[in-house]
Design goal:
alpha/beta, SDR_fam, 273 residues, Rossmann fold
């Protein structure tokens, strides 16, 4: 913890009710930020708000489904209404989607992932820039991408494409707004112990169990699923949400003011080999 690192700063965190987003909210609150926790789950969001407030911090939960443009517009309008400014934005919400090769991908499969991961990121950044341009000191945007934003993974065309899009959007935003003192960087995690990661794995293992129950050899499915690729980091373990939050919050802080347009790999060495 770095005491008062974010004192006087207003920070919005999408996907803030679980996993990496929750870890970001809790640490930012402990380090002095006024935290806006954005997410769909009201009970979890309010619980995090309460935890931050009881620890002496300042936080507000605003319910938001990032696949709904009006929810995103409302999120930032309410933030300004409550706190009067927006200094830091952590665009962390996203989904993995089903493990399918492109020949098996339906339109709904494709658009559900692209809407949640890329279109939502665009709508968020557009609103964030609008308010940060009003700040004398600009602002900081950190986007959660993935190692899938810099390389491919098996049976994940929508996810890989959406995260590559996040990387491109990050660089474009950094280029256009550096002159306004707005920095924009992306963090690319590999495997991280979060509810989202566990849900994705459970879906795959449930499909394997279903095939076995039908007397079908699941080896072909396994060869063509996300788990067919490399899953181990050099460290031989997943990251924790708190480790990813540490990286994200560095790039959100004034310590990183000279860094923009960077795509930061926080992967335990996953992409080294």
């Amino acid at each position: 913890m770095i005491q008062d690192r974010f004192a006087g700063k207003v920070m919005v965190v999408t996907g803030g009710t679980s996993g990496i987003g929750k870890a970001v909210c809790l640490r930012a609150g402990a380090e002095g930020a006024k935290v806006v926790i954005a997410g769909r789950n009201q009970a979890r969001g309010q619980a995090i708000e309460k935890e931050i407030r009881e620890a002496g911090g300042e936080a507000t939960f605003i319910q938001c489904d990032v696949t709904q443009k009006e929810d995103i517009i409302n999120l930032y309008a309410k933030t300004i209404e409550i706190y009067g400014q927006l200094d830091i934005a952590i665009n962390n919400a996203g989904i993995v989607g089903d493990s399918k090769k492109i020949e098996d991908l339906t339109d709904d499969d494709w658009f559900s992932v692209v809407n949640a991961n890329l279109n939502a990121m665009f709508y968020c950044i557009r609103e964030e820039i609008k308010y940060m341009l009003k700040n004398e000191n600009g602002g900081a945007i950190v986007n959660t991408a993935s190692v899938a934003g810099i390389r491919a993974t098996p049976a994940g065309p929508a996810y890989v494409a959406s995260k590559h899009g996040v990387v491109g959007l990050t660089k474009s935003t950094a280029m256009d707004y550096a002159k306004n003192n707005i920095i924009c960087n992306a963090v690319c995690p590999a495997g991280t112990d979060t509810p989202l990661t566990e849900a994705a794995k459970e879906k795959i293992y449930a499909k394997i169990a279903e095939l076995k129950a039908q007397g079908i050899d699941p080896s072909e499915f396994m060869k063509n699923s996300m788990i067919a690729g490399k899953t181990q980091t050099l460290q031989g373990r997943n990251a924790t949400s708190e480790e990813q939050a540490s990286t994200i919050l560095y790039f959100a802080s004034d310590e990183a003011r000279h860094i923009t347009g960077s795509i930061v790999v926080a992967d335990g060495g996953f992409t080294v080999y």
